[in-house]
Design goal:
Elements lengths: L2 H8 L10 H10 L1 E5 L4 E3 L4 E2 L1 E7 L2 E5 L2 E6 L4 E2 L1 H5 L2 E2 L3 E4 L3 E7 H10 L1 H15 L11 E4 L3 E4 L2
């Protein structure tokens, strides 16, 4: 796939959308293409990962065992949390069709975030929309607990 084609795909993903063409082209050049046949697992629950993926073509299923969490089509991404904060995968992802995926590693993503405040803002905004605007308290000095992993106070 040509770099310009990959850049056009990235431009349709929520937090890459509308970024300058030069930045999209550089990100596209750094993204690794993965051909995944239908039925093959892309990632496994519990597996350590530091990458995110964009579905360039095909469909994938995100699941925990046999329980389907969601299905993603072209121009959707998964694994964002692992790319931002490498960790064990919380679910598995399996190709439903023959897929072409664009893989972006943690180190690559952070190089681009360091170069582009606009990218950092888009990612933060996208993550906030995904978790919902009332998941965390908005008042100062209020103690909060999120997913039993973090306790602290707004300062």
């Amino acid at each position: 796939m040509l770099t310009i084609e990959k850049a056009m795909i990235l431009n349709e993903v929520d937090f890459f959308s509308g970024l300058p063409g030069e930045l999209l082209s550089e990100m596209a050049a750094a993204a690794t293409e993965m051909d995944v046949p239908a039925g093959r697992k892309v990632t496994a629950e519990g597996e350590y990962s530091s990458a995110m993926y964009v579905v360039a073509s095909g469909r994938v299923r995100i699941h925990e065992g046999e329980k389907v969490i969601r299905e993603l089509t072209e121009r959707r991404s998964f694994g964002t949390r692992c790319a931002l904060d490498p960790r064990d995968r919380s679910s598995s992802v399996t190709a439903m069709d023959d897929c072409l995926l664009l893989k972006i590693e943690h180190e690559v993503l952070f190089e681009f975030i360091a170069e582009s405040p606009a990218l950092a803002k888009r990612i933060i905004g996208s993550l906030c929309r995904r978790i919902g605007n009332d998941s965390l308290p908005c008042t100062r000095n209020e103690t909060f607990v999120t997913a039993n992993r973090y306790e602290g106070e707004w300062k």
